[in-house]
Amino acid sequence: MVTPRVLSRVFYARDTVMVARELLGKFLVHYLPEGTAIGRIVETEAYLQNDPACHAARGLTKRNRVMFGPPGHAYIYFIYGMHYCFNVVTREEGVGEAVLIRALEPISLPKDRQASNLPRRVGFQPAPKVNLCRGPARLVQAMGITKACNGFDLTNKGPLVIWAAENVPSEKIVTTNRIGIKAGQELPLRFYAADSPYVSKKIKTKFRGENSEVR
DNA sequence: CTCTGGATTGAC
DNA sequence: TCAATCCAGAGG
User: Fold this and answer.
1) Which bases of chain B come closer than 7 Å to a protein CB?
2) Which residues pair with residue A33 across a beta bridge?
3) pLDDT score for A121
4) Phi, psi (degrees; rounded to nearest 5) at A27
5) What stretches of A109-188 adopt beta strand conformation (E)?
6) Which of A153-186 are b and which e, b meaning 16 or more Cβ less than 10 Å from the residue's Cβ?
């Protein structure tokens, strides 16, 4: 078996939409004490600095400061009083842009179940594989990612890295508007692998000619 | 200091 | 359709 190549800084230091599209098919890897968690990225969203839905749209704050830092770092934020979401920082230092990872195809999860560290998950039976990493907050739990990972360098030796892999070909990428936001809802900044059953939701898109898909 | 709403999820 | 659950950010 060949040693996988970790995506380097130059991969992330580019146009955020391009990074969001090219992250599809790559492998998110987390080295945990109990084993290695691996998931194949199948759904992403781009957040741009001049985009009202972006945390960085109104300038540098304590929460979003890693978005303005060097590319290839993890930006993790707390939302809805109970969930965390995982992003990768893009563009050069000083520009606040990132890609939200919205779904993974589970490849290897040491804890092959939904994490039970949140009250609502306690006592839950193991979830079907298709649901384990379907959704940004679910994948964070299944991969063992926590707020302590905020700011981690993904281009280093770990514990959190992304392995290079072949791009999902352009004709197999569906483009839609982003999920769960209000401002900026009209922008075509969500991307997913058309063939994957592990995508959070397949929605009607307004964006014809972008491999729009229904349901 | 107070207030509002959110890049979600799971239950009803 | 809606509650859970809490903090970031904006405004006074």
Assistant:
1) 5-11
2) none
3) 47
4) -110, 120
5) 160-163, 173-176
6) bbbeeebbbbeebeebeeeebbbbbbbebeebee
Please give the nucleotide, over all strands, whose C1' is closest to the CA of residue A57: C9
Homologous superfamily, domain A9-170? Methylpurine-DNA glycosylase (MPG) (3.10.300.10)
CA of A79 to C1' of B3 (A): 17
User: How deeply is A2 buried, as exposed, middle or buried, from its count of CB atoms within 10 A (0-12, 13-18, 19+)?
Assistant: exposed
- In this predicted model, what pLDDT tens digit does every residue of A60-112 receive, in sequence order? 999 999 999 999 999 999 999 999 999 999 999 999 999 999 999 999 998 55
Each domain of chain A, given as residue ranges in start order, spans 9-170
Instruction: State the average pLDDT over residues A22-33.
Output: 97
Arithmetic mean of pLDDT over chain A: 90
pLDDT digits (tens, 9 = 90+) for A118-160: 443 444 556 789 999 999 999 999 999 999 999 999 999 989 9
Residues 67-126 of A with CB under 7 A from strand B: 67, 75, 77, 79-83, 85, 87, 98, 100, 114, 120-121, 124
Residue A207, token pair as written in the block: 């964006």
- pTM here? 0.92
Q: Would you call A81 helix, strand, or coil by DSSP? A: coil
Among all chains, which residue has been given the structure tokens 């979003």? A64
